Amino acid sequence: MEIIISNSSGVPIYEQIKEQIKVKIVSNELKENELLPSIRTLAKDLRCSVITTKNAYEELVKEGYVKNVPSKGFYVAKINKEVALEEQLSRIEELMDKAIGIAKMNNIKKKTLKEMLDLLYEEDKE
């Protein structure tokens, strides 16, 4: 499972792990009842602490994306994909609202923001 961590993003590492796993679940890259890597294995693969991966998994369990089967591990839970997608869209809207606020404070035109969005979106596909 590929997860990319940024030490300079300002977002806690456990949160980065959690969000990337959520995206993989919502996009069906990770399927219902699929076994996730153990806490130790994931920590080793990501070169982070076991506590960090434990926190990410615990948050995913709390939010209903993952279930913990004692003595067996963590599995992708059955989720309502529409509700999960709506949650992600809401998060994106929040972030875009912040970006628009910054742009307006600095007199950056809407056209420039659209160009940036197009470039960043296409860059992600490459």
Structure overview:
- The protein has about 130 residues and is mostly helical.
- It has two domains: about 15-75, Winged helix-like DNA-binding domain superfamily/Winged helix DNA-binding domain (Arc Repressor Mutant, subunit A, Orthogonal Bundle), CATH 1.10.10; about 80-125.
- Helix content is about 60%, strand content about 5%.
- It contains five helices and two strands, in the order αααββαα.
- A two-stranded antiparallel sheet has the order 1-2.
- It is elongated, with a radius of gyration of 17 Å.
In short:
It contains 5 helices and 2 strands. The chain has helices at residues 13-26, 39-46, 50-62, 81-105, 110-125; strands spanning 66-69, 73-76. A two-stranded antiparallel sheet has the order 1-2.
* Secondary-structure element series: HHHEEHH
CATH superfamily of the largest domain: Winged helix-like DNA-binding domain superfamily/Winged helix DNA-binding domain
* Uncertain ranges: none
Approximately how much beta-strand content do the residues carry?
A: 5-15%
Helix content: 55-70%
Categorize the overall geometry: elongated
- Distance from N terminus to C terminus (CA atoms, Å) equals 19 Å
What would you call the structural class?
mainly alpha
